[in-house]
Write a structure and sequence with these properties.
The protein is 18% helix and 34% strand. By secondary structure, it is an alpha+beta fold. The protein has a 6-stranded mixed β-sheet with strand order 2-3-1-4-5-6, sandwiched between helices. A 6-stranded antiparallel barrel has the order 7-8-14-11-10-15. A 6-stranded antiparallel beta barrel has the order 16-20-18-17-21-22. The longest helix is centred in the middle third of the chain and has 18 residues. It is globular. 39% of the residues are buried.
């Protein structure tokens, strides 16, 4: 059991257009890697028979909502967990419909890699470009282009090479450096877990072999120390009369007893007196552990403050430049007030300007149309009621991201990745 807990974890997301075979691919991965329980398999067989399928529909393993099974599509993000002797995996199966692009942003936000499926008959389409842009936007380390349904093109090497050549140009434009290309048939299992004898011209590895051997990115424990304070613990009883600790989850780096730290936004300095995890004391803690920190000095610290390393201070500003994916049917409103939720901090903010939107078809910036609607991706500038303590998204995914909330309905309307403003450096693809 301890060996399983110590195994390396890879998080990956699947994306593609409707009917490209995302759910079938995951079902095939789970089935061929022996990661399905017998009762699950029996339930899928029964469901397939009820739907009149001649064979077991492995897509039903992930399409868990009734509406998904009835329509044969994925609507919500479905998370699945499995393991092989080499590695543990968390899969985020995201929808293919254009109106669910926001769900792909959710599923890919914590992923290390993305599998983007392409129907070999249709080639590169708008959704392929959209999902590739999101992968680029979220700084995913690896993109696997799985060219599916090769069985419907007689496993044509020419079809595979044509799609690969077209995507190479897209990858260059988006700055995707680590792209892997695999011809597969998710339905039949070709090149998914086992190499197929129907693609003798393919000299690469199977999809599972690739997933088992992809290098996982540098852990967040290697980043600069970031400890957003979530709660101040003051028991105020006889046993813990003078106890004061600051609880939260490390968003980056490591912290040790005796470290000199800085508390933002006051820039007060202190020394770590103790680190508590539950009822145990630790000499050190690493991201993403949840711990309570006690300091030697009686300083003023509250929720929303951040404890950081003295020699590596994050940015501290009220003018924030974002790449935002808009999630709401109401367009973004310049000058309107929104709630900005950033880690444990919550402030009000207004949208000052829209620099540009992204044309998903051409992967170019649209400068003359500043109306940002649902599923649009845009570069915007906001101003918050008090300065935020943040890093760029490229430096730290946790401290470099935020959500935008409608103050009247409390709906989450936007997901933002903090980037340098156009005044500092032009950000474009």
């Amino acid at each position: 059991m301890s060996e399983y807990l110590d195994m390396e974890l890879l998080r990956f997301t699947t994306a593609g257009s409707v009917d490209d075979g995302k759910s079938t691919l995951i079902g095939r991965l789970l089935y061929d890697s022996k990661s399905i329980f017998e009762d699950q398999m029996e339930a899928i067989k029964a469901a397939s028979e009820r739907m009149g399928n001649d064979e077991v529909n492995l897509a039903l393993l992930t399409d868990g909502l009734r509406a998904e099974r009835e329509q044969g599509i994925t609507i919500d993000v479905a998370y699945r967990y499995f393991a092989t002797p080499k590695r543990k995996f968390i899969i985020a199966d995201t929808p293919g419909h254009i109106e669910y692009t926001r769900n792909m942003v959710t599923g890919a936000s914590t992923a290390d890699a993305a599998i983007i499926l392409v129907d070999a008959r249709n080639g590169i389409i708008e959704q392929t470009k959209r999902h590739s842009y999101v992968a680029s936007l979220l700084r995913l380390d690896h993109v696997i282009l799985a060219i599916n349904k090769m069985d419907l093109t007689d496993f044509s090497e020419d079809v595979f090479n044509r799609i690969k050549a077209e995507y190479i140009e897209i990858a260059k434009k988006l700055g995707l450096k680590k792209v892997h290309y695999i011809p597969i048939s998710a339905r039949d299992g070709d090149n998914v877990v086992n190499l197929s004898d129907r693609t003798p011209w393919y000299k690469g590895k199977t999809l599972l072999h690739l997933l088992e051997n992809l290098p996982v990115k540098e852990g967040i424990d290697e980043l600069a120390l970031r400890f957003p304070v979530q709660y101040v613990i003051r028991p105020q009883n006889d046993r813990f009369h003078d106890y004061r600790a600051y609880a939260g989850r490390l968003a980056g780096g490591k912290i040790r007893v005796g470290d000199r730290v800085t508390i933002l936004p006051s820039y007060t300095e202190s020394t770590v007196k103790a680190i508590d995890e539950g009822d145990k004391s630790r000499d050190e803690a690493f991201a993403p552990q949840s711990v309570s920190i006690r300091l030697n000095d009686n300083v003023d610290v509250s929720r929303g403050d951040m404890i950081v390393g003295r020699d590596n201070i994050p940015r501290h500003d009220a003018n924030i430049s974002l790449l935002v994916c808009w999630l709401n049917h109401r367009p973004i409103s310049i000058g309107a007030k929104y709630i900005i939720r950033h880690i444990t901090d919550e402030v009000f903010g207004i949208v000052k300007s829209v620099y540009f939107k992204v044309n998903i078809n051409t992967l170019e910036n649209i400068l003359d149309d500043k109306t940002v609607r649902m599923n649009d991706i845009a570069h915007i500038q906001i101003k918050t009621s008090k300065p935020l303590k943040y890093d760029l998204y490229a430096e730290n995914r946790i401290t470099g991201s935020l959500v935008i909330i409608n103050e009247a309905t409390f709906e989450t309307v936007g997901a933002g990745m903090i980037v340098e403003s156009l005044e500092e450096q032009t950000y474009s693809i």
